[in-house]
Write a sequence for this structure.
């Protein structure tokens, strides 16, 4: 190699070294790592689920109320979506922020593409989706959520679909858009209009085939078959409230975390103390299970035998466990004050709960319901394990 | 009826009409309709005790904050910062907190808050909501 060529290559070599050097970090995998959001102080706790311990704190992430994240396919980097529009790429091995951009005024969540190259963010203000290169956080595309005349909707329920596509819903517009980013700088948008009033969140099935949006303004859900988008959307579980008056909804349910047990899906009913069971062969209601309050998260243990449910105010200190064979409650517990989120270890032997108003994260054995560990945390909300890297829709 | 968070089916249509009446009526209340008000717009007799105030601050920051943002700069719900609430009387905000707004995601909190508490929150919001201690 000539001197000239070597000199030209030097900056690249240095850049590579500085990007990967973590002098204090011993080699380790990331499969048992996770991040806990401390929503009020803009900090993440790096945790490990083998010994149930906190490894480190990562600060400087801005307003993390309602923060969520996705993981890159190497399980090393997390992409954290902050309420204040911040998109932060966090390095779990080096235990630090790799890079960060403030890309909007107000955002709600995001998704990572099937190939891990694109990170998309759903924004409330200004309403729309922005797509970034996962490695550099360079902005590649902007998709304003325009509807009507000059209006922009808040974007919710942004999910990854196969082949560099993202699906998302427009809250005020009542539309679902499917964006194809095969050419990331030239997104191709397919719009599904008049799908129903106020889609508030969405999910994709574990196989990635169906995108389902929940409606807040009506009783029902909207189904889009991502294998056949040309067939359009269809309404399912129409009028599940049977015209009865709903309760005041003190916290919006979350649909991400599709609870699937065999062919049956478990989802939160809005404004009702019920979990709805959907037969995914016929897309009809199969059952409804009375629970202790208005469900927020309804999440299946990875083996599908149990479904764990937490609740909105004033029942947010309660967690219930549904047995999917009998469709009955097999356990009710009061693990702490304001239980905001639940995350299973990858194979489901443990579950981690965040008890916001106790400033603690709790670890439970999912077979015995015994409490295994308590970790101090400042107003913890979301808990995200790296196993999400390998799941469609997470 | 329209005081509950959300109505369904035929109730919803009825509720929308009621909501319009509610907004028109409540926002039209002159501030002087409450002669017992203190200078800060909070009825002296109904002011929550200091310990309860701390609970309310926590509740607004975290539970209201799940839609309006921890900093109250807005989210699914609108911003609740003083600049955004200019021109909205305390009575209107109190009513909005207690009864919600039909046809939107805003629930009525009257099952969890007293009138005095809602009024205290409304007043604090108008002047810039305190942080948790």
């Amino acid at each position: 190699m000539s001197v000239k060529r070597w000199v030209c290559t030097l900056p690249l070599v240095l850049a590579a070294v500085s990007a990967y050097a973590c002098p204090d970090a011993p080699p380790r995998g990331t499969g048992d790592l996770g991040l806990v959001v401390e929503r009020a102080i803009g900090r993440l706790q790096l945790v490990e689920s083998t010994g149930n311990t906190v490894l480190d704190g990562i600060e400087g992430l801005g307003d993390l109320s309602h923060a969520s994240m996705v993981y890159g396919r190497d399980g090393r980097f997390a992409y954290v979506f902050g309420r204040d529009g911040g998109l932060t790429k966090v390095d779990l091995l080096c235990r630090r922020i790799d890079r960060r951009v403030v890309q909007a005024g107000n955002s709600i969540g995001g998704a990572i593409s099937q190939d891990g190259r694109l990170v998309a963010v759903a924004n409330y203000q200004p309403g729309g989706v922005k797509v970034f290169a996962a490695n550099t956080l360079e902005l590649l595309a902007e998709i304003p959520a325009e509807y009507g005349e000059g209006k922009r909707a808040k974007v919710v329920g942004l999910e990854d679909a196969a082949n560099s596509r993202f699906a998302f819903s427009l809250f005020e517009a009542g539309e679902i858009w499917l964006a194809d980013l095969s050419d990331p700088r030239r997104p191709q948008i397919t719009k599904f209009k008049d799908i129903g009033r106020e889609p508030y969140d969405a999910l994709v099935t574990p196989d990635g085939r169906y995108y389902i949006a929940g409606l807040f303004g009506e009783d029902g859900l909207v189904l889009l078959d991502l294998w056949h988008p040309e067939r359009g959307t269809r309404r399912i579980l129409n009028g599940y409230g049977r015209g009865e008056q709903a309760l005041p909804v003190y916290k919006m349910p979350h649909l991400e975390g599709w609870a699937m047990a065999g062919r049956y899906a478990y989802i939160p009913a809005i404004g009702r103390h019920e979990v709805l069971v959907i037969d995914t062969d016929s897309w009809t209601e199969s059952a409804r299970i009375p629970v202790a309050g208005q469900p927020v998260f309804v999440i299946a243990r990875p083996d599908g035998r149990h479904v764990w449910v937490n609740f909105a105010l004033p029942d947010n200190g309660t967690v219930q466990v549904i047995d999917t064979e009998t469709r009955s409650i097999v356990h009710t517990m009061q693990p702490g004050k304001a239980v905001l989120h639940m995350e299973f270890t990858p194979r489901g032997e443990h579950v981690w709960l965040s008890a916001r108003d106790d400033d603690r994260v709790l670890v439970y054995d999912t077979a015995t319901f015994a409490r295994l560990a308590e970790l101090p945390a400042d107003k913890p909300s979301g808990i995200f394990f790296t196993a999400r890297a390998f799941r469609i829709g997470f | 009826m329209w005081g509950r968070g959300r109505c369904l089916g035929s109730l919803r249509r009825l509720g929308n009409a009621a909501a319009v009446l509610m907004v028109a009526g409540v926002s039209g209340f002159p501030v002087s309709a409450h002669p017992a008000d203190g200078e800060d717009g909070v009825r002296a007799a109904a002011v929550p005790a200091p310990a309860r105030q701390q609970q309310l601050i926590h509740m607004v920051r975290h539970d209201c904050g799940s839609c309006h943002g921890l900093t109250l700069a807005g989210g699914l719900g609108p911003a609740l910062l003083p600049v955004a609430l200019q021109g909205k009387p305390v009575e209107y905000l109190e009513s909005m907190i207690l009864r919600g707004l039909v046809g939107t995601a805003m629930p009525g909190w009257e099952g969890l808050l007293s009138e005095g508490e809602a009024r205290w929150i409304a007043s604090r919001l108008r002047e810039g909501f305190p942080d948790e201690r």
About this structure: The interface with chain B takes residues 39-40, 63, 65-66, 83-84, 106, 108, 124-125, 154, 156, 171, 198, 200, 216-217, 219, 239, 241, 243-252, 271, 313-314, 338, 356-357, 379 of chain A (CB under 8 Å). Residues 3-20 of chain A form the longest helix (18 residues). The helical segments of chain A are 3-20.
